[in-house]
TrEMBL record:
Keywords noted in UniProt: 2Fe-2S, Iron, Iron-sulfur, Metal-binding
InterPro entries listed in its UniProt record: 2Fe-2S_ferredoxin-like_sf (IPR036010), 2Fe-2S_ferredoxin-type (IPR001041), Adrenodoxin-like (IPR001055), Beta-grasp_dom_sf (IPR012675)
SUPFAM superfamilies: 2Fe-2S ferredoxin-like
Gene3D superfamilies attached to this UniProt entry: 3.10.20.30
Domain 2Fe-2S ferredoxin-type: 1-101
The species this protein was found in: Rhodococcus artemisiae
Pfam families attached to this UniProt entry: Fer2 (PF00111)
Protein name (record): 2Fe-2S iron-sulfur cluster-binding protein
Domain of life: Bacteria
Amino acid sequence: PTVHYIFGDDTVHSVDAVEGDTLMHSAVRNGIPGIEGECGGEMSCATCHVYIEGEWRKRIQAPSDDENDLLEMVDELRPVSRLACQIKINASLDGVQVRIP
Ligand code: FES
């Protein structure tokens, strides 16, 4: 599946992602700046904060209570905020747009 990472200036970096990988791992693997994934996906750092905009959000499982708790710590929290380490890539997410705060 293709994942489009979108930066603050609206430039897009598209990567060929591996199914089963998370949006965080895929970003780190491809050297996408702004998604650090310091805790390795253990849901303790929130350095993988992203915005999932538009219809894509509806295709992704809603955040767990733990994810919501951690999201409350991030800067620039929006209703479309998610932790990229909690979102697994699958075929239905082909073309997903992930905005980096
Ligand atoms: Fe640390 Fe997502 S990588 S919370």
